Amino acid sequence: MHVRRLLAVFLVLAVLWALPASAGAQGGTEIKHTVQAGENLYQISLKYNTTVTAIAQANNITNPSLIYVGQVLIIPTTTPPAQPTVTPVPTAVATTVPGASTATPVPTAVATAVPTAVPTAVPTTPPATGEIVHVVQPGENLFRISLKYNLLTSIVATYNGITNPNLIYVGQKIRIPAGAAAVTAALPAAVPPTVAPAATLPPAPTMSAPQPVVTQPAAAAPQNMASNVGFAYGVQIYLPNQNIPQVVESADALGVKWVKQQIDWSLYEPVQGGPVNWAPIDEMVDAMDGAGLDIMLTVSSAPDWARDSSQEKGPPTDYATYAAFIGQLAQRYAGKVDAYEIWNEPNLRREWNTTKGISAASYAELLRLAYAAVKQADPEAVVVTAGLSPTGFNDGVNAIDDRVYLRQMYAAGAADYSDAIGAHPNGWANPPDSTCCRNNRPAVPGWDDHPSFFFKQTMSDYRQIMVQNGDSGTYIWATQFGWGSNDKLNVEPATDYGFVTYTNTDEQASYILRGFQLGREMGYVGPMMLWNLNYCAAVGAADDRCFWSLLDPVGNPRPAYLTLRDASK
Question: Which residues span the domain enclosing 243?
Answer without folding.
Answer: 228-566
